[in-house]
Design brief:
Chain B: Keywords: Glycosyltransferase, Transferase. Chain B: It comes from Albidovulum litorale. Chain B: It holds the Pfam family EryCIII-like_C. The complex is a heterodimer of chains A (about 325) and B (about 450). Chain A has about 325 residues and is mostly helical. Chain A is built from twelve helices and seven strands. In chain A, strand 1 and strand 2 form a beta hairpin. Chain A is globular. With about 450 residues, chain B is α/β, with parallel strands linked by helices. Chain B has 13 helices and 13 strands. The longest helix of chain B is centred in the N-terminal third of the chain and has 34 residues. In chain B, helix 1 packs across helix 13 and helix 3 packs parallel to helix 5. Classes of the chains: A mainly alpha (about 325), B alpha/beta (about 450).
Chain lengths: ~325, ~450
C-alpha cells in the first residue's frame, strides 16, 4: 500500500530524506548558476527534483536552518546573501552507499532478482552490505512507499505498475484523476515548463524512426504528465498523481510501445498543450482522456493459429 | 485530393503474420494507399497501436475464458516435445480442425464486412482460404509467411515435416500419414468451399495460390531448388519483410558481460514458463547477457540471474539488430529477422513450420537446431557456444545480410499489392493452377 502523501497536512518526513533532497536543490541552483538572493520557487524545484511540493518545503526549511536559504512569508524562499554553493552543505549528507543500495534493491526487484518479500539477512548477503546500511536503504524505500516492514526481519515490496495487469490498473487510476486535475477549478499551468517541454517534444518528433530514443520519450512522457499533476489545485490530487508518476518512472515500469505509438502519443501531448496554453481546459481534459485510452495496451497476451487469442485480463469499463 | 486504393489486410491471429503485415501496411501507406486491417475476434489492438484502422470480425460466442488457454497448453505441452511426424495426429490435425471451424464461423461476417468496405484488394496472410475473399470480387494477394514448404513441389520436403531436403525416403511416409490424419477435416473443408462456390483443393491443401499475386517470405539463402519454377508474374520471393522499430538501447545488466543473446519463443512459447526457467538456469552459468521475452508472465519467475533481463515485450527487429545470437522457435518472421540482421539462430521448434525452419537453418548453415525439451545443460551450452564461435557461419550470414537489406522486402510487397489492385480495376481474375500441386 502506498504511503499516504497527504499534501500540506502530512507529518514531516524523516530527516535523511530531506537531507538528500536539500542536496539536490542545491545541485539545481548550482546547475542554473543561481546566485545569492535568487528566488527558489517551490513548484519549479518540485518539478526539477521530480517530487511533490511537500518534501521540497521540508528540504527548504532544512536549508533555512543551515543558513543557506532565507524565507520571507510573502516572498517565499531565496538563496541566502553571501552563500557559496561550493561545499556549502555542512550537515552530514546521506551515505551514498545507502542511496545506491536502495536503487539497486528496487532495480533488482523490478527485474525479479528479488522476491516480493525479502529478509534483511538475504539482502546483506546478496549485496555484501552491513546491517545498518541495509536498514537505512530499506528506510529510504519505505519513505517513498516502495516497501513496508513485515513480521520478523522481512520487508515487502509495494505493487508497482510493472506487469500487464498492474499497468492496466495504473491507466484506470490515471483516467480517474488526470482529467479531474485539469477540470477542477484553479488548475494552473507552469507556462515556462510547458514551453520547455514543447521544445523538447518537437525535437524528439523531428528524429527519424531509426533514431527515435525510447528512453527520451519515456522521460518526456513523465514530465508532461507531472506538469499536469503539479498544476492541479487540489493538493491531494496533485500529490497522488505525482507519487504515481514517480512509480511509473521506476525500473521495470515502462510500458513498451512501438515507434508509431510513441510518435502518436507525443503528438497527443502537444495537442493537449495547445489547448492548455489557450485556457481551453475542458477540451484539454477530453483530449487527455482520449490520449490515455489510446495508450492502453490492448495487444492479446497470447495468440496462435487455431486458438482464440488470449486477451489481457480487463475489468469491466464504462461505455 | 486523390485517394489511393484501399487495401484490406487480413492476417491470421498470430503475431508473426500480424507484424509481417504491419511492415507491408506501412510501405503501402508510404505509397499513398489506405491500408486497413481485418482481424479475428480477440486479436485486436495490435494494428491500432501502429496507427491502422481495425475492423473486427464479431465473436462467434461468448468471450474465450482464460481456462481455454490453460486447457490448450495442458493438452498440447507434451505434444510439442514429439517429433514432427508424431505431432500430426496429436497437434496438427486438431489444429486444422480449429482453423477450419474458424473459417466457417468467419465466412458470413467477413463477407458482410468486405461488402461494406469494398476494398480495392485484399491481402491474405493465412494458412486457410476464406471463400468470402473470392466472393468479394476484388483482387486478392496471398502472403506465404510460413516457410517455403507451405507451397508444395516435388523437390521441397513436405510441409511441417522438418525432414531434410535429401531424405526423400521418408517424405512419402510423412505425406501419407499426414493426409490420412488430416483427411476428415480436409473433406469437411472442401464441402465448405463447395457450399460457397469454390472448387475443392487437392489432398492436404487448405489454401490455393492467388490468381493475382503471391508473396513468399523466403530469402534466397533458404530457398529450395524447385522442380517447377514459380512464374515471376504471379509469384514474388521476398528477401524478408522486416518492419522498422525505434532503436533498442541495450539495458545495463546487474552483472555479466560478453555477447548479447536474445531469446523469444513467441507468445505461445512464453506460456511455457517451466522450459524458460530451465533455460535460465543454464544462462546463469554462461558468459553472455540474455534478454528473454517472457510475455505476460514475468511474475512466474524469481531469483533471476544478474546476466538475464526479462521483459514482457521487445521491439524485436531492433533487438535482433543488436544481438549476437537469437534463440527462437523457428517462426518464419523471427527466422527472417535473424537473417536480415546477419544474426545466427539457435532454433528450438515447438510445432508447425518451426520444424521446417530449424531443419533448413542447419542445411543452409544459417543456424543451429536443438530439441526444445530434450537437452542437457552441456548440450545447450555447447549449442550456444558453437553458434557464437562459428566464424564461417557468421561470414555467410553477414554476406546474406548485405543481400537482404537493399532488397527492401516490405516495399517490394507493397508494390506488388498495389499492382494487383490496379489490375483489378481493369480485368477479372486470371486463372492459374499451381505447377506441381496436382
Amino acid at each position: 500500500m502506498m504511503q499516504s502523501n497527504g499534501g500540506k497536512t502530512a507529518s514531516p518526513r524523516p530527516r535523511q530524506n530531506h537531507l538528500d533532497l536539500a542536496r539536490r536543490i542545491l545541485d539545481v541552483a548550482r546547475e542554473r548558476g543561481l546566485g545569492p538572493g535568487a528566488h527558489l520557487p517551490e513548484q519549479y524545484l518540485a518539478t526539477q527534483c521530480n517530487v511533490s511540493r511537500t518534501p521540497v518545503r521540508a528540504a527548504l526549511k532544512l536549508l533555512t536552518e543551515q543558513g543557506l536559504v532565507e524565507h520571507e512569508a510573502d516572498q517565499g524562499y531565496r538563496l541566502a546573501k553571501g552563500v557559496s554553493l561550493t561545499g556549502a552543505f555542512a550537515e552530514p549528507l546521506p551515505d551514498p552507499k545507502e542511496a545506491e543500495l536502495a536503487a539497486r534493491i528496487i532495480r533488482d526487484r523490478a527485474a525479479r532478482r528479488l522476491d516480493e518479500t525479502v529478509t534483511v539477512g538475504e539482502v546483506m548477503r546478496r549485496y555484501d552490505s552491513d546491517r545498518r546500511t541495509v536498514l537505512k536503504a530499506f528506510g529510504t524505500l519505505a519513505e517513498d512507499g516502495l516497501v513496508s516492514r513485515a513480521p520478523g526481519q522481512s520487508w515487502v515490496f509495494a505493487n508497482l505498475p510493472d506487469s500487464l495487469e498492474s499497468q492496466s490498473d495504473s491507466l484506470d487510476f490515471r483516467l480517474i484523476l488526470e482529467p479531474a486535475a485539469l477540470t477542477t477549478p484553479g488548475f494552473s499551468l507552469d507556462h515556462d515548463r510547458a514551453a520547455a517541454l514543447r521544445r523538447a517534444m518537437v525535437a524528439l518528433l523531428a528524429e527519424p524512426d531509426d533514431r527515435l530514443d525510447g528512453n527520451r520519450f519515456r522521460q518526456l512522457d513523465l514530465e508532461f504528465h507531472m506538469l499536469i499533476a503539479r498544476g492541479a489545485s487540489n493538493r491531494f490530487v496533485s500529490d497522488a498523481l505525482a507519487a504515481h508518476h514517480r512509480l511509473r518512472g521506476l525500473p521495470g515500469a515502462a510500458v513498451r510501445s512501438n515507434v508509431v505509438r510513441l510518435r502518436q502519443a507525443m503528438l497527443e501531448h502537444l495537442h493537449i498543450l495547445d489547448h492548455l496554453e489557450s485556457d481551453q481546459v475542458a477540451v484539454a481534459a477530453d483530449l487527455l482522456r482520449v490520449h490515455l485510452r489510446l495508450s492502453r495496451n490492448q495487444r492479446p497476451r497470447a495468440a496462435n493459429r487455431g486458438v482464440p487469442p488470449l486477451a489481457i485480463r480487463a475489468k469491466p469499463r464504462e461505455g | 485530393m486523390s485517394i489511393g486504393p484501399t487495401i484490406a489486410l487480413f492476417p491470421e491471429a498470430s503475431f508473426g503474420a500480424a507484424l509481417n503485415c504491419v511492415g507491408i501496411a506501412r510501405a503501402l501507406k508510404a505509397r499513398g494507399a489506405r491500408p486497413v486491417f481485418i482481424c479475428h475476434a480477440g486479436f485486436s489492438g495490435v494494428f491500432a497501436e501502429y496507427g491502422f484502422q481495425e475492423y473486427h470480425l464479431p465473436l462467434a460466442d461468448a468471450p474465450v475464458p482464460e481456462t481455454y488457454w490453460q486447457d490448450f497448453i495442458s493438452r498440447h505441452q507434451p505434444h510439442f516435445n514429439l517429433d514432427p511426424a508424431d505431432q500430426i495426429e496429436t497437434y496438427v490435425a486438431p489444429t486444422w480442425d480449429a482453423i477450419v471451424e474458424t473459417a466457417e464461423q468467419a465466412e458470413a461476417p467477413l463477407f458482410a464486412l468486405l461488402q461494406r468496405l469494398r476494398p480495392d484488394a485484399v491481402v491474405l496472410d493465412n494458412v486457410v482460404m476464406f471463400p468470402a475473399i473470392v466472393r468479394a470480387g476484388c483482387p486478392w494477394v496471398r502472403v506465404i509467411s510460413c516457410a517455403e514448404t507451405e507451397l508444395p513441389d516435388p523437390n521441397v520436403p513436405p510441409y511441417l515435416s522438418g525432414l531434410p531436403a535429401d531424405d526423400r525416403l521418408h517424405w512419402q511416409t510423412f505425406v501419407e500419414r499426414y493426409n490420412s490424419a488430416v483427411g476428415p477435416v480436409h473433406h469437411r473443408y472442401n464441402k465448405f468451399r463447395s457450399r460457397h462456390g469454390l472448387p475443392p483443393l487437392d489432398q492436404g491443401q487448405f489454401l490455393e495460390p492467388s490468381p493475382w499475386h503471391n508473396l513468399l517470405l523466403a530469402p534466397s539463402v533458404l530457398r529450395y531448388d524447385r522442380q517447377h519454377q514459380l512464374d515471376p508474374a504471379r509469384f514474388t520471393f521476398l528477401e524478408g519483410c522486416v518492419r522498422q522499430e525505434a532503436p533498442y538501447q541495450v539495458p545495463e545488466f546487474a552483472a555479466g558481460e560478453g555477447p548479447l543473446i536474445y531469446v523469444s519463443f513467441g507468445s505461445l512459447g512464453a506460456l511455457d514458463t517451466e522450459l524458460i526457467k530451465r533455460l535460465i538456469v543454464v544462462f546463469a552459468e554462461f558468459p553472455a547477457r540474455f534478454l528473454v521475452n517472457v510475455g505476460a508472465f514475468r511474475d512466474a519467475y524469481r531469483a533471476v540471474p544478474d546476466n538475464v533481463i526479462l521483459d514482457q515485450w521487445f521491439p524485436q527487429p531492433s533487438v535482433v539488430a543488436e544481438a549476437d545470437l537469437f534463440i527462437h522457435h523457428g517462426g518464419n518472421n523471427s527466422f527472417c529477422e535473424a537473417l536480415y540482421y546477419g544474426v545466427p539462430s539457435l532454433i528450438m521448434p515447438y510445432c508447425w513450420d518451426g520444424h521446417d525452419n530449424a531443419r533448413r537453418a542447419v542445411e543452409t548453415g544459417t543456424g543451429r537446431r536443438l530439441h526444445r525439451a530434450h537437452w542437457t545443460a552441456d548440450e545447450l551450452t555447447a549449442a550456444m557456444q558453437s553458434a557464437l564461435e562459428d566464424r564461417e557461419m557468421c561470414g555467410r550470414l553477414k554476406d546474406n545480410e548485405s543481400r537482404m537489406v537493399p532488397e527492401n522486402g516490405v516495399d517490394l510487397a507493397a508494390e506488388r499489392i498495389v499492382e494487383a489492385a490496379r489490375q483489378g480495376a481493369v480485368k477479372s481474375a486470371p486463372l492459374i493452377r499451381l505447377p506441381g500441386a496436382d
